[in-house]
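Researcher: We're reviewing a set of sequences before deciding which ones to prioritize for further study. For each one, I'd like a predicted 3D structure that I can look through quickly. This is DUF4148 domain-containing protein. If possible, include the structure in token form so it fits the rest of the review sheet.
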Amino acid sequence: MAAAAAAAALLAMGGCAAELGTSVKGVAKATGFATDSPKSTEFVAASRPARIDYMPVGIAQPARPTPPKSAAEVQALQKNLEDTRTANTEAGRSAQAAGQTPAPTPAVAPRDHVAPSATD
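Model: Here's the predicted structure for DUF4148 domain-containing protein, in token form for your review sheet.
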């Protein structure tokens, strides 16, 4: 019961503190419920840019560094990609057919032939 009353008092004081210009975090920090953020380690601070440029909302994006392709250029690129796909498909079929070739049968030595001995 006392804990609930203390929590209610903290919430009420937090609301008043916010009106007086201090934050709720300041009250929580004073009572030991909040801490300061730790300082970034050296390699983290060094890897961050000094200024982060976020894309503003409601403003047009900057112009593209390269102009967009014309319809004819897009069609030529599409044809090139389709030709490459067709060539790759044919090469795959050729490789698959080569992989399905049965293994050759080993040569059989005639039985009447006697191998020369080491003493001959």
